[in-house]
Design brief:
By secondary structure, this protein is an alpha+beta fold. Helix content is 31%, strand content 27%. The chain has 5 helices and 7 strands. The protein has a 6-stranded antiparallel barrel with strand order 1-2-5-4-3-7. A hairpin with a 4-residue loop joins strand 1 and strand 2.
Length: 186
Amino acid sequence: MDKKIATIIKSISHIEYVAQVINPKEQVGLTSSDYKLGSFVLIGAKYVGLIYDTEIFNPNSLTLSSQKEEFEIFIPDYQDEIDILLKILVLGELDNNIANQGLPSRALEAGMEVSQMSPNQIKDFHLSPENKVQVKYHSSLNNFGSKLNPGLFKLISEQLKALLSPEQYKIIEVIERNLLWTVLSN
């Protein structure tokens, strides 16, 4: 079973979403390595995403300190909690281990679960039914340009290197160089 790590809370665009990491008290064994930068995730058991950024959000920073004291008086179990938000780029769909890379067929919904992808799911997403490497989503990454950390491409490449044959990985190296050149030239 996939390990749930977050829940979609809003969209930025049709392919960009924000997910709130679930409270570690609700998910035993959840650590920051479960939602690290460059991780491939499954959204709603069908959509494949990539964690491209994280944000720490303190909802209490929006209230005045005097309001915080009032909360503590009227709500004794009030806790000063910090939320971790994940920015996720949707790369395509994985349905019955068959990948469809590109724009998702529909908008995702708030409340959809975000789970870790297994190494086999990541590999399936990057191989066509003919067992050829496919990275059609590279144009989405390319269009993102300077929004993405150039190190993100290296993280993706390292994950795929561990999953693909040396011959298959050669294609990833070419795409990685192309994407890095695009980002660095902007």
